[in-house]
Design a protein that fits this description.
By secondary structure, the protein is of the alpha/beta class. It is built from 12 helices and 10 strands. It has a single domain, classed as Alpha-Beta Barrel (TIM Barrel). The strands form 2 sheets. The chain has an 8-stranded parallel β-sheet with strand order 3-10-9-8-7-6-5-4. Strands 1-2 form a two-stranded antiparallel sheet. Helix 1 packs across helix 2.
Length: 329
């Protein structure tokens, strides 16, 4: 395991980390979560990701129970959560000062920690001025409840606006963004955010490196009964990959699988290592519903030397989707 700075901050996070979306509180109970987190930690993982919207807070509870059992020294790991999707009430959702504050306190209780290392704004909130959100995050930082705050799936313009307001008013600016990034989703990380890595020192904690499992090639013959695409509440994911565009992407996956086989790599290892080749990726968040699955994903690091420049060029020829840099860059 290697460690990378979270943007321009001094925090160093493991290049692979463990997330809880879809799994914790749904497919993974506290016992299995404890085993998986212990496996990840023993393999060098020091960052564990969560959100208030994951299983309505149950993912945070499961992770909190695991952290309590494991009793690691607090200075050996970082934990995050996110704010936005807290509930259906008018004060339980979004990025108002009130909801950000209430959600932080609730997350601390569920995770059973005294402070959050990373706190993300899970989506932009068009109903709340960015200035209000920046102030709310800054207040939590000064209170010692949050160390670094950032965004998830914000536009480059929104991140720049938040950063600019913070800098102009002596407040704590956003440090990191959590975007989707994989061989099919590249526009934000490689295109839109390109000016921000130098301008604001943006770090990225990328999610869905395997495109919700599609880059394991397990959907080549249809959707397995035990896959996340068949989970209640994730019908949208199944529809996405059964669309015309989804079927075209599955054809590309078959070609990528051939490249990986020729290189002596499992396809999912190749996909993870591809993400890690981007120097602007601070950490790649893994998701797993079984201990064996997590162990297998962590083993991708053992094959790092097999990912050559020639393989990278061959992958580009297959996917043919490299984003154009912003015009002003």
């Amino acid at each position: 395991m290697q460690y990378r700075r979270l943007g321009k901050s001094g925090l160093k996070v493991s290049e692979l980390s463990l997330g809880s979306w879809v799994t914790f509180g749904k497919q993974v109970d506290s016992g299995l979560a404890t085993s998986m987190m212990a496996e990840a930690y023993d393999g060098g993982v020091n960052f564990f990701d969560n959100a208030e919207g994951y299983e309505a807070g149950n993912a945070e509870k499961v992770m909190g129970e695991a952290l309590k059992r494991l009793a690691w020294p607090r200075d050996t790991y970082a934990v995050s959560t996110k704010v936005f999707f807290g509930g259906r009430g008018p004060m339980n959702r979004g990025l108002s000062r009130k909801h950000i504050t209430d959600a932080c306190h609730a997350g601390l209780r569920r995770l059973e920690v005294d402070y959050l290392d990373l706190y993300f704004c899970h989506r932009p909130d068009i109903d709340t001025p960015i200035e209000e959100t920046v102030w709310a995050m800054h207040n939590l930082v000064t209170q010692g409840k949050v160390l670094y705050w950032g965004t998830s799936e914000w536009s480059a313009q929104q991140i720049t606006e938040a950063w600019g307001f913070a800098r102009a008013n002596g407040l704590t600016p956003p440090t990191m963004e959590q975007p989707e990034y994989n061989l099919f989703e590249r526009t934000k990380v490689e295109g839109d955010y390109l000016p921000l890595y130098d301008l604001v020192g943006l770090g990225t904690t990328i999610w869905s490196p395997l495109a919700s499992g599609v880059l394991t090639n397990k959907y080549a013959d249809g959707v397995p009964a035990d896959s996340r695409m068949n989970l209640p509440g994730y019908e949208w994911l199944k529809e996405r990959w059964e669309s015309e565009e989804g079927r075209l992407r599955l054809a590309i996956v078959a070609k990528l699988a051939k490249l990986a086989d020729d290189a002596g790599l499992p396809l999912h290892h190749m996909a993870l290592l591809w993400c890690l080749r981007n120097p602007h990726v601070s950490t790649v968040i893994l998701g797993a519903s079984r201990l064996e699955q997590l162990q297998d994903n962590l083993a991708a690091l053992d094959a790092r030397d097999r990912f050559t420049d020639d393989l990278a060029e061959a992958i580009e020829a297959v996917v043919d989707n490299r984003p154009e840099p912003p015009r002003h860059f």
